[in-house]
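INFO  loader      accepted 1 record
INFO  loader      residues=122
INFO  predictor   begin
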Amino acid sequence: MATAGQITAGLAKMRVDGKLWKVNSVSLSIGTTTREVVQSMSGPGGIKVTPVSPHGTATVVVGSADKIADLAAISDSTIEFEIGSGFAYTFTHACCSNQPEYDAGEGTCSFEWQAQAASETK
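INFO  predictor   done
INFO  writer      dumping tokens
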């Protein structure tokens, strides 16, 4: 289930530095903060706020012209998503945060990324 600041979509288009990828599924977090109540012996002592960087995961359909190495090489890139609801998300200074995993049976590749900033438009 999606939490505040998190968007899950099935229909999406993804561009990485202008290159279009077909997306099977995507889960995005535009980066907010997490809040946690700090407890002390005498009860709640306040709220700890921790910033969370924008990040996400995507599963892309790998075509004959697509290179998995291009996903692994994402570094200081711009990743743009358009999802079925009409919203668009732009992640700037993004990098691939794990090695992409290719599923030969499905013809898809999953990867994760993190970014320094994200914006949402409609």
